[in-house]
Specification:
Strand content: over 45%
Helix content: under 10%
Structural class: mainly beta
Number of strands: 11
Order of helices and strands: EEEEEEEEEEE
Number of helices: 0
Radius of gyration: 13 Å
């Protein structure tokens, strides 16, 4: 069974850090680009970061998280991470990871329909 599972969410104060993990089972993660999306209450799911397949040489970030968030992958563990630093209350939402085969470019990664698989989401709450 193909599955993506997010973990690492939680409650943190503004200025704090969290690291999300996206673990894959049933398929080889490094064959896919992995995107991170965020959905705040009442808003659409928005792309915040993406890492290309293979060695992860291409990484993309939304302007709202550039310089604060870092995406990385550990293919040996079949896992992609999103390190989130200097968190702000507006970072609050449910974070989802998605997998797209074989990879995505700069104009594609923010589009939900480009992804083949999705995780169930992890709640991140940043208090002020």
């Amino acid at each position: 069974e193909v599955q993506l599972v997010e973990s690492g969410g939680g409650l943190v104060q503004a200025g704090g850090s969290l690291r999300l993990a996206c673990a894959a089972s049933g398929f080889i993660l490094d064959d896919y680009a992995i995107g991170w999306f965020r959905q705040a209450p009442g808003k659409e799911r928005e792309g915040i970061s993406c890492i290309s397949g293979g060695d992860g040489g291409n990484r993309y970030y939304a302007a709202s998280v550039e310089g604060r968030f870092t995406v990385s992958r550990d293919n040996a563990k079949n896992t992609v991470y999103l390190q989130m630093n200097s968190l702000k209350p507006e970072d609050t939402g449910v974070y989802y990871c998605g997998a797209a085969w074989p990879t995505l470019g700069a104009t594609q990664w923010t589009k939900v329909f480009q992804y083949d698989y999705w995780g169930q989401g992890a709640q991140v709450t940043v208090s002020s």
